[in-house]
Amino acid sequence: MAFLDDDLLERIHNRAPRYDAENAFPTEDFAELKAAGYYGAFVPKEYGGAGLTLPEIAAEQTRLAKAAPATALAINMHQIIVGMARWMVRRGDERGEMVLREAAEGKLYAFGISEPGNDLVLFGSITKAESDGEGGYLLTGLKVFTSMAPAWDRLMTFGAYTAEDGVTKDVFGVILREDGGFTMKNDWDVLGMRATQSNSTRLEGAHIRKDRVLGVVDPGASKEPVVYGIFSNFELLLGSTYLGIGERAVEVAAERVKTRRSVARADVYATDPDIRWRIADGALGLAAAGPFLRELEHDVENGVDGGDAEYPRFSAAKNTAAEAAIHAVDQAIRSMGGGSYSRKGEVSRLYRDVLAGLFQPSDQESLHGSWASLILGPVSSYAHDAE
C-alpha cells in the first residue's frame, strides 16, 4: 500500500505550475507532507517513524516526482539524511539516532554539501572547520544548491578540519537554524526545479555542537557510516526521483497523442508508427533504469556488500535513471508537436526540471572516471617510459 494517498498527490500536482511560475517554495505542499507524516516515513518504527524501507521510500519519491518534480527533489534531500541516519544506526553508530528522532517529530533536514568549484563534492570539503574547544566545530564557507533554504530546521553539512599535526579530516554534523551563524542568499533564479528554492548558504562560523557531530573522517570514498550512508541514499533516491519525471512525461505524451489529429493521415497521432516508436523508445530507457535502481536499493536495505564496484554502481544507477528520464521527456516533446513548446504546458516544465539531473553528482565525467579506474586501474598504476 502506498504511503502518500492519491488525493494528496493530486493537490500537490495542481499547485506545481504556480510554484514554478512564481519561483516560490511550495509551502502548502510541505505543510501537507508534514501532516501526512512524510518527514518520518523513512524513520524506523522504534524511533517514532512509519518504518518504510529504502525500496518503499524510493517508490514514494517516484510517485511524488510524477506529481511535482521540484517538491519531490526538495523533500528528497531530507529523506537522504534520514537514510544516512538509518545506516549509521544499523552499523552501530548511535549518533544517527538524533536525526531519526527529530525527523519523526517533524523536523525538516536539509543537505549542505555542494560547494562552488569543488568537484570532490562529498569526498573533500573546502569549507573551513575550526574547533570550538568543547568538542564541536565552527564552519566557515559557502554551500550551494541547499534545497529547502527557506524552510529547513536542521542543516546537515561538513567542513575540513586541520589538526595541529597537519592531518586534515572532514567533519560532518548538523547545525540548527535557531543558532544562526549563516546567511542565506536569494539567488535561486534558474531554468528548472525552481520551487526547490536551493539558495546558496554562506556559513559564517556556523556551530556544530558537540552532540551534533556525526563523524570526523578521512576525506574520500569510504565505508565510514556517515559517508556511505549519504552516498548510497543520495544516488539511489535521486535516481528514483528522476525516474518519476520520465514516467510522467510518457504519460502526458500518451494522452496527448490520443487526441492530437493528423490532417494528412486523417487520424490521431496515436496510430502513427513514428510517434508510437518515439513514445515506446522513451519508455524503454525507463524500463531498464527502474530494475537497476531497485536491485541496489534492496542490496543496501539488506546490507549486501558490493565490493569495489559498489560506489561506481550507485553512480551508474543514478546516471542511468537521469539520462533515461531526460531522453523520455525529449521523446515526449517530439511526439506532442509544437503545442508542447508552450511554457504553460506540463511537459515544458518537466523538460526544464529534468535537466537538473545533468548537474547533480555523480555527473557523467565522474561516473566514467570511476568506471575507467575500476576496469583499467588508476592512471598512476601505469609505468611511463621517459625514454
Fold and architecture overview:
With 387 residues, this protein is an alpha+beta fold. The chain is 47% helix and 14% strand. The strands form three sheets. A four-stranded mixed β-sheet has the order 1-4-5-8, covered by helices on one side. Strands 2-3-7-6 form a four-stranded antiparallel β-sheet, with no helix packed on it. Strands 9-10 form a two-stranded antiparallel ribbon. α1 crosses α3, α3 crosses α6 and α6 runs antiparallel to α9. The chain is globular, with a radius of gyration of 22 Å. The N and C termini lie far apart (67 Å). The mean pLDDT is 96.
What is the topology?
Elements: H1 6-22, H2 27-35, H3 54-67, H4 69-90, H5 97-104, E1 109-112, E2 128-131, E3 137-143, E4 154-162, E5 168-176, E6 182-184, E7 201-208, E8 213-217, H6 225-257, E9 261-262, E10 267-268, H7 273-301, H8 310-336, H9 346-354, H10 364-376
Parallel strand pairs: 1-4
Antiparallel strand pairs: 2-3, 3-7, 4-5, 5-8, 6-7, 9-10
